[in-house]
Amino acid sequence: MLIKKIKGSILSIININCSSNNTILNISSFEKKTILCSSCGFLGIKGSRRSTSYASQAISNVLGKKLLLLGIKYAFIRLKGFGNGRYSCIKGFSLAGVKILRVQDVTLLPFNGCKLPKKRRV
To answer: How high is the pLDDT of residue 4?
Structure first.
């Protein structure tokens, strides 16, 4: 886990990447400098239990408490992916005491689909 002291900053950006196997959290300042980063495996949760909503809520609660110790009280949240811990991360940060100002979805969506296979020649 990476921890850096940010002077005079009370705002942060929380990037949440929810995949089908894990949830990765990256908390940065507005100058794009990483303050904290972690995933569900940091708590000792291994295997298929990392992809559960409980694991993502637990790790977001731990990181939220560390944010408050650093003096950061407000956050913008950016969600990416379709994993199980998508909304429970928001719940974990709010239970820790972090005030959430905005939730933004930055999931990539295909707009044209996959290329069709080549025509069969007989």
So the answer is: 53
